[in-house]
């Protein structure tokens, strides 16, 4: 046993004072305060000027994005079976049907696997940028233009990752982000954002998140069925504080820690594959995924990760069940362990993880 790992999330200095001021003001709802709008404006600037709409969770973001893009009953949405279930249940919530494609060796949907799963009713694809890695978006977007379907990016695990210099979430028709407790930044436990290519789509998301009101009308008129998926003022203020230090503190630390970890593990005989992180596909490292050579180890990733945790490493194995049986997705789920690189960690936590990996690998190696 070793000392406990540093706590994550950790909020920006002054966060508690800001929350106390909001509580004292009594203006805690999106429509009564200022932080919700400020958060959306700052996120829009950060996301290359895309329209940004704050919502109550990443799951709500996916749901509203699909509905705003016109998905509904009778439509098919191509999804990955290898992710948290919200990326597929969002299709069902919007009234559409999830159709599962396999993933490539990089853990994510590819143009080739998507094309094999297309049906005459396919109207959209949800591309999940898993673990902070970036899917190969160029061929996917070219396929979407050729076959006429919408592309929704699920960036819940990839805030700040980039494809050819563009932030993920700004490449497709809509991008969806999560500010759940363990993500890159949090809005105090839950929260989400939808960024949209067009103002029309963004206004539909705004309408749907607030009971179907017609944006800009006063007194409010309601023109469609909607939901209450707003973010509170306290959540918005917390997320805004974290967004402000994302590029200057959070992401640089994650990348430095990941680079240290990968340099130490590179070439290890128990590892079959390291994550994708290239100038074209720049990862933001929610986790550092490592694919084990399970044939040499004789143990699956879940057991390996449990042993790593017992050694005090910040390690994680896939906990979500597969949503469909696809060959490559099942192989990767059974052989991938992830290492946390929270920005509250330092080199000693990374070095501890490396020592733990080597010890556990030697114990299991055939």
If you had to describe this structure to a student in words, what would you say it looks like?
- The chain is 39% helix and 16% strand.
- With 366 residues, it is an alpha/beta fold.
- The strands form three sheets. The chain has a seven-stranded mixed β-sheet, with helices on both faces. The chain has a four-stranded antiparallel β-sheet with strand order 10-12-14-13.
- The radius of gyration is 21 Å and the shape is globular.
- The chain starts with 14 loop residues before the first helix and ends with a helix.
Strand share of the residues?
A: 15-25%
- CATH superfamily (homologous) name of the largest domain: Type I PLP-dependent aspartate aminotransferase-like (Major domain)
H/E element sequence? HHEHEHEHEHEEEEEHHHEEEHHEHEH
CATH architectural grouping of the largest domain: 3-Layer(aba) Sandwich
What is the strand tally?
Answer: 14
Q: Terminal Cα separation, in Å?
A: 25 Å
Number of domains: 2
CATH class of the largest domain: Alpha Beta
Which stretches of 5+ consecutive residues score pLDDT under 50? none
